[in-house]
Give the backbone structure.
Amino acid sequence: MSIQKREKNLNFFEKLYIPEIMKGMALTLKSMFRPNVTLQYPEARFEPSSSYRGRPVLVQDNNGVERCVACGLCARVCPALAIEVQASETELEKERYPVKFEINMLRCIFCGFCEEVCPEEAIVMSKDYELVFKKRDDAIFGKDKLLVPVENLKERIEFLRAFK
Amino acid sequence: MPTLTVDGIQIEFNQGQTIIEAARAAGIEIPHFCWHPSLSVSGNCRVCLVEIEKMPKLAISCSTYASDGMVVHTKSEKTLQARNAVMEFILINHPLDCPICDEAGECKLQDYAYKHGKGESRFEEMKVRKEKRVQLGPYIKFDGDRCIMCSRCIRFSDEIAKKNQLTFVKRGDKVTVSTFPGESFDNPYTLNTTDICPVGALTNQDFRFKSRVWEMSNTNSVCTGCSRGCSTEIWVRNNEILRLTPRFNQKVNSYWMCDNGRLNTFKHVNAQNRIDGAYIRKEGQLQKVEWEEALKVAVKSLREYKNSEIAFIGSPFATCEDNYALLKFARSLGVSNIDFMNHILPGDQDEILIREDKTPNSLGAELIGLKNSSNGSSLDGIMKSVKEGKIKALFVMEDDIVSANQEYEKIFSKLELLIVNSSNQNETANLADIVFSASTFAEKNGTFVNFQGILQRIRPAVATEEMDRALDGMEMSRWDKFGTDYDRWLKGKKYDAKPSWKIFTMLSAYMEGKLKYDMAEDVFSDIAKSVENFKGLDYDSIGLEGVELKNIKSEARLAGVKNI
């Protein structure tokens, strides 16, 4: 095996350094007049596209009832065991609903498997990426924090229908 | 022996066996919905169609008798095509509601749809809708949509439960299962239909929506409802029993168990009135104390009496190990007043499974020697002596004898010392001076002897405070395996209870220390050494189906099994 030469053979001008520095300064100057890409978070906020996988949420239909039927597939498929579902019976046509639905956000790895496996389009990945807790218990989100009205999730649901 | 060839494998069979039976005996499974080994052949689901050489058409293997030299193909192209077509037909009107169906995960139709189905439907028309959520009987919900008309439940109620309560009504695609109008499906064995239902049409009301089947662990055990001792499985999630199901055991219960055993023998394990820890009566009230203190007080109090002033009551609800430890402990004190109470409900017995002796281990307790003629007074004698003040101290293990006989309450007021091992609060425990919380049948290892003399093992399915599912080799669900202390789904209540044999061993340690057992298995090997009927046995040799004990003179031995 031949020994690979790592450095470039510099020519005379490159060896002078000055022109190279000038080149770099020129690029800097050019960038000063380009549009800004850095966001001044938290004053300016990042708005993700619909393909973004933020925290998983439960879809609340217009009648105020969650779509979830507590089948437990999300809990089964979850590779991090973040989801716990307890089913119960309801008089509604769907027969079954989650009396308890908890996602441990410290376990969640935002893989989106729950969303993919859901037969009811009831759990989707939202655009919400701000998750801060002071206590372990605060990281366990119950139905109160998970339910999100369907209007707020339209983009993601349309994305799923197009690409899932 | 005649032979036939299935998928190129030559198998022997007995004359009179059908193809499906012969194949099953040889370990080859042919898909089936309506066929059940214990029921008559109905032949209506058609999914067991197989190709038989020299036969013009495919034949259903469940009602075609095997004959010598027959060549059967269960995986040929023709068979697979037919099976796919049958699956497609069955699935036409089957709703796609697996997400809300309790059967999902143990559903034959679901399994076969994966294995033998096409994976998609060509049916574009409206599915036929039928009645949902029909209360068919006291414990059963029926969903007409899901039913695939295999008639297993109908044949079960005719042939096994011997109550012709179910039938098909209507015709064609409107056919559904029903009772006679106004009648309820209410025989003592109805819930077996939920087990044999190949889909989720019949579901157990008591278990409805409580858990998905894959979230639970299942432990082999024995039903404690009567002296039949049906083989069961205990299904546990989050350290709580959610259901019991029968386990096949040809010698004892075949595939079945009664509704009472299934529904009413496990609720006490996680009940509100469980006793948690050891208690001593102080100033008229039972107060929780450390085990050590209670043990010391118990030993000290027992020492204050002459051995003729003490009596021990064993229990037919407790295991052989517990009763043996009681016997040995009593003997180490020189006490000979030992007996136990029978719980017989005269007349509550049938030809199928239910026995009038409502305890799982009365024969076991007897064989261990709790009703031995060399013992002193019998139960009645003990109670008479208590009444007369001759017996002043009584030890009652795992039996609520006061509820069973109300007269005892008055008699017990004469006692100076009453020590009780009990899992739950009851009238006997409430009268006690010292209470030790005993593990239930679902929390310990042990053995029961049923009325036929068959010895079976129970295993811990629910952990007590001193147990750890992994270290104690208990069955574990996925949740049990990967849960941590911070997961709310792993915070099921653990009770501070101990098996009775352990309580006696601990008591003994504060005395002469004659009982030296670390595990239930140690107690059993001691039994195997000293009790004639148990000679040569150990936990491994008992196996899943149990063993018949030697030299049992039970007139009921192996009776009634042929019927089921």
Observations:
- Chain B touches chain A at residues 98-100, 104, 132-133, 208-212, 214-215, 478-479, 482-483, 486-489 (CB under 8 Å).
